[in-house]
């Protein structure tokens, strides 16, 4: 089936924006100019521009026109064992280092562990875990999402059963688990990329079809996995920087 005329025009304009033919904050040609260029009516040209507005590539300014959305500065999220181990919130420390006010919203609930999460935590499928969903913000704007899982067979009845409630709320996983005698000795991360889903796009204020980085992170004590999480990061806003401790006698450590 042929794509509607306005979608073909939107595809061309989108490509121009991505390739830099239109600079950040540059005004797009008027609807009439686009209609003349593509040999369509002004209504079709307007529909093409509205498509780009819906996708987040451009913004409409009343009485002025439509402009390429300015790209936010790319900031850094540090993946560091030192930062995880020293206490407090590693995310908030990252934001403070870049003069950004970091914060988050969260919601926790006990759920049966999905099979993939049970495998990562080395527990039986459908075992109870505490699932916590986060939306992290920098200066009030969404930065990244995270969904973490902690086995209730370890945390139930303790002061850390709710990650964002109680006397240790807002602390990192390493510090919280230490309070109940669970000493995390290393963490592993797998980084991949995929298209954002609709719910994530809404929460992160991204265009449909945008690509996000996915960090699959798991913390381990000497004897078991103790927490696992999926972290969603928009790569046009944030980059990941890894600091890897090195043991001079035994080579590098995987405690990143």
Q: Can you describe what's shown?
A:
InterPro entries: Bact_HTH_transcr_reg, Chorismate_lyase_/UTRA_dom_sf, Tscrpt_reg_HTH_GntR, UTRA, WH-like_DNA-bd_sf, WH_DNA-bd_sf. One of its GO terms (molecular function) is DNA binding. One of its GO terms (biological process) is negative regulation of DNA-templated transcription. This is Putative HTH-type transcriptional regulator YurK. Keywords: DNA-binding, Transcription, Transcription regulation. α1 crosses α3 (42-55). It is built from nine helices and twelve strands. A hairpin with a 4-residue loop joins β8 (211-220) and β9 (225-233). The protein starts with a helix and ends with a strand. It has a six-stranded antiparallel β-sheet. Strands 1-2 form a two-stranded antiparallel sheet. The protein has a two-stranded parallel sheet with strand order 3-10. The longest helix is centred in the N-terminal third of the chain and has 15 residues, at 5-19. By secondary structure, it is of the alpha+beta class. The chain folds into two domains: 5-68, Winged helix-like DNA-binding domain superfamily/Winged helix DNA-binding domain (Arc Repressor Mutant, subunit A), CATH 1.10.10; 75-252, Chorismate lyase-like (Chorismate lyase).
């Amino acid at each position: 089936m042929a794509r509607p005329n306005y979608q073909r025009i939107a595809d061309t304009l989108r490509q121009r924006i991505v390739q830099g033919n239109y600079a950040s904050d540059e005004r797009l040609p008027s609807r009439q100019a686009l209609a003349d260029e593509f040999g369509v009516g002004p209504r079709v040209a307007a529909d093409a521009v509205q498509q780009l507005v819906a996708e987040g590539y451009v913004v409409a300014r009343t009485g002025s026109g439509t402009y390429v959305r300015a790209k936010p500065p790319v900031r850094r999220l540090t993946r560091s064992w030192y930062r995880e181990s020293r206490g407090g919130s590693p995310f908030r420390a990252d934001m403070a280092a870049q003069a950004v006010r970091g914060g988050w919203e969260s919601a926790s609930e006990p759920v049966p562990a999905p099979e993939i999460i049970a495998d990562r935590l080395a527990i039986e499928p459908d075992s109870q875990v505490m699932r916590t969903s986060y939306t992290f913000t920098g200066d009030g704007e969404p930065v990244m999402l995270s969904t973490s899982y902690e086995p209730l067979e370890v945390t139930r009845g303790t002061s850390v059963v709710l990650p964002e409630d109680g006397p240790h709320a807002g602390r990192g996983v390493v510090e919280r688990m230490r309070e109940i005698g669970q000493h995390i000795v290393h963490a592993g991360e797998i980084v991949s990329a995929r298209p954002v889903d609709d719910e994530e796009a809404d929460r992160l204020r991204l265009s449909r079809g945008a690509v996000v980085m996915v960090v699959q992170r798991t913390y381990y004590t000497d004897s078991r996995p103790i927490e696992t999480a999926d972290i969603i990061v928009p790569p046009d806003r944030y980059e990941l920087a890894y600091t890897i401790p090195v043991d001079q006698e035994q080579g590098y450590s995987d405690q990143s």
